[in-house]
Amino acid sequence: MRIVRPTLVTHVLMPVALAALLLGLYAPMLNRPFMQHDFDRVINHASLTDPQALAKSFYHPEPDLADAGVPQYRPVSDASFYLNAVVTGVNPLSFRLVNLALLTVAGYLVALWLGGYTHSSIAWAAAFVFVAHPIHLNTIGDLAGRANTLTLIGVLAFATAQHHAQIIGRWRWHTALIAFVAALVALGSSQTGLTLIPVAWAQFYLARRHGDHWSHNTRVEVTPKPLSTAMILALPVTAYLVGRTLAIGWAPEPGFDPGDLGINPMIGSTLAQKIPACLSIAFFHARQVFWPDPGANQTPATLPLWGDRSVWLGAVVLFVALILLVRLLVKSRWQAVAVVLAWAQYLIVCGLFLPVRDYASNHTVGPMVLAAVMVLAAWRAAHGNKTQSRNAAMALVPAAALVLILGLVTVKSQHRWRSSLTLAQADYERQPENPVAMYDYATAMASVGNYAGARAIYEALLVRRPYSTQVLRGLVAACWSLGRLDEADQYARRWEESAVRDPSVALREADLARREGRLDYARQMLVSLTKAHPDNEKARKALDELNLALPFHLE
User: CB count, 10 Å around CB of 390?
Assistant: First the structure.
């Protein structure tokens, strides 16, 4: 192992080149309108403009009912959006420029981390390949993707600081501070920040068993400090566990009916149903790394079953990844850290331990891409020319070719990110029988005034999902806008009947109606809910608060 000394090239020119590459790739889409998901998860979130709501997001015991799906504990990413809005205002260009800057920081940290294990030229080549991957279209175009970039930055910064401490044999105060803050950022940005714990263990394990193959030119005696590393991690992890439990509960219930649209279909399913789905997700990650499809919707129409090809291909992927991990750990190869990161990310995304809002999506593939890039960099370093400098120079040729190919895919795929409508249409054309794609396309059409087209798709979708409150709500709005008042009333009654089947759904629908100013309808929903579920204290409390807000009400 070795320490990468600061130079003008590594700490100034190369980061600027990274930023220039990303700006060139994403310039066409930076000022395009916000996407529909941006409004749902960021723009309309109370913490974007309200400091009190932001403060409550850290340790508030009652989550906002308007939070769709599984409540998320992401106070750091929420704070970044708040600061973004305060400094620049709420506009697409400034928010996406910040996303671009964060991805540049992530690429810089990739090079800094790998530079301690291999030649700096190979490390920077890997960083350029990583940031050029089209999977990042989702983290630039979709504001909510910032949480995953921040998480990756936290994990990379912690791993780099720990690596530095292991090389010199002790933690210095500034590297310990960096590691401490990095852990807070990783854990507070999304729950996948928990990956830093197995990454820290892997680096500690490999440092104890390090050999000449850990460095390309120098062997450095390492004196690991496991207790000090554990102490640095202890406070951020404890704060995360306490804050998450207070704010949303350790395993929060979903805000939607598990069978509804827009939520991870694995929520509420049995373990027997989850296993084939998780195997299929392994294949999804492998495919997205090597053959990316930068679409917005990756939720399947139905959960994969044992007869699906993707399930068995996923089993093969996991078997190969497990053999690779064991082999690298036994031989104490540094790229084992990358495989540990990928495994940890996969297990969290599968939702086997914690509920996850979304099914596997492109937002969560970044660590998998990083792991693949690190393994390729290590392979290139080990199987190149014997002369290290020549080997590093030769590594730039395939890296440049990869950056060119990936960049072309990124630029070509940007046409679908022109608006919510074009993005939803691209997903619908790719998977016309997928209920989530159908719903997103209908909603996007309604947002631009094409209520007739939205109504047609909503009605076709209602055949598949007859109790979906989202589809019924969309039909009510579409029929009302088209002047079909009788149909709107019929769908509204079905909407209410479907909502009160699940108290959490009815509470959210009532809260949504209250926020939109439809107080009479909100009260009607809560009255129906209290009649159907008379022991529900939340419903009774919400009804009492709404009655106080109304000038009068009838029993």
Answer: 11
Map residue 555 onto helix, strand or coil.
Answer: coil
Distance from C-alpha of 509 to C-alpha of 473, rounded to nearest angstrom = 10
For 322, the token pair is 């497990």
Tell me the per-residue pLDDT of 453-496, one tens digit each, with 9 for 90 and over: 999 999 999 998 888 888 998 999 899 999 998 998 899 888 87
Residue 259 CA to residue 267 CA, distance in Å, equals 9
Q: What is the pTM of this model?
A: 0.89
The DSSP line for 264-330 is -TTTT--HHHHHHHHHHHHHHHHHHHHS----S----SS---TTSHHHHHHHHHHHHHHHHHHHHHH
Q: What is the 3-state secondary structure (H, E, C) of 319-361?
A: HHHHHHHHHHHHCCCCCHHHHHHHHHHHHHHCCCCCCCCCCCC
Q: Any residues with CB less than 8 A from the CB of 132 and at least 6 apart, and which?
A: 21, 25, 402, 403, 406, 407, 410
Torsion, Cα of 181, 183, 185, 190 (10° steps): -170
Longest dimension (CA), the chain: 86
pLDDT digits (tens, 9 = 90+) for 505-516: 777 777 777 776
- What's the CA gap between 329 and 221, in Å, rounded? 19
